[in-house]
Amino acid sequence: MTPQTRTRPLPLIVHGGHPGKASPSDVRRMNRTLIFNLLFPSDARSRAELSRITGLSRVAVSDVVNGMIDEGLIRESGHATSVSGKGKRATLLAVDPTRLHVIGVDLSQDRLVEGAVTDLRGTPQNHMEIALEPDASMDPDDIIRLVDRLGSDIDGDSLIGIGIATPGVVSDGVIRESTALGWRDIDLAAAVGARFPVPVTVVNDTIASMITERFFGDAESNLMFVKIGRGIAAATLIDDVPVLGEHDAGGEIGHIALDPDQGPPCPCGKHGCMETLIGAPALRARMSGADANGRTAVLQDAGSYFASAIAMPIGLLDIDDVCVYGPADIVNGTFLDAAQNRLDAMTVSDFHERTRIRRCQQGAGIALRGAAVAATMRHLESA
């Protein structure tokens, strides 16, 4: 998707909400969100160009832009190059990474709460971690303590939001179910928001990771993003809109029971769930003690099995890009080649071209950055 056509701010969709009759303040909010999204993360455009793309009058664009500059969301960043070399050059606008801050938190790692102060693009500026004891479970107080430490080092007026990435099903800031954390119906947004006077955005960690891949990676507007670790989860993007599902559980493929009768037990209470069959712990256990050929065979089988599991939604939704995030000993060439071969055999046809399966290149911090970006977009939505 080209920047000129990206008019829907992707992360806003994760907060839910229903459209209604727009008031003047709603219209202004939508206009500034639209303009910010056309500049995010690193585009530079003139007021005249923003007017042409959005269809807003130059007066309306200037009014919104001036307010965003005063607030610290965007800044003037130089001048456009004149084609003729004559006349006054247009002033360019870009996202301002210097004045406002967000705190991002990642709960998706085993026995680790990771947080960072970031700029509006989710770029970390100050990083902290809380390591949990082996027999300790994560508690909302751990998150509050970390955010408190991070926030003490920044000007309170510059903090515009807190974004938290968490495994599990999230609905309006409430973690409905997270087997990884052992949480059920935890209103994390309210717990953290009671301590800090800024909006708190809680987002599923796989969706947060997909946000990072969409804005800073190789993805375009249609994508299946799969995260393989201690569990397996997916997030799907269709025309730049995350597919959340009726109960905000879209992408929870790890707990689909593929062998409910004879498969291994899962913490969710069923047997034969996908993550017990091809999750990282299960595959490592199977590869333990095996020789090189044995390890290769395990990964090839896992890749083929993975492709078989995603072939149906790929064909149903006509997606041509699958991005897989996971540890290098699992999501590597052996796994991906086997998955690609199997998916090609199952889906390629005269009316469905080849879907590419690729390894995510974003690296560590992907969920934290996505949560911070979601918090930035939430600020635009709520201010």
TrEMBL record:
SUPFAM superfamilies: Actin-like ATPase domain, Winged helix' DNA-binding domain. InterPro entries: ATPase_NBD (IPR043129), ROK (IPR000600), WH-like_DNA-bd_sf (IPR036388), WH_DNA-bd_sf (IPR036390). Belongs to the ROK (NagC/XylR) family. PANTHER family: BIFUNCTIONAL UDP-N-ACETYLGLUCOSAMINE 2-EPIMERASE_N-ACETYLMANNOSAMINE KINASE, ROK (REPRESSOR, ORF, KINASE) FAMILY. This is NagC family transcriptional regulator. It comes from Bifidobacterium parmae.
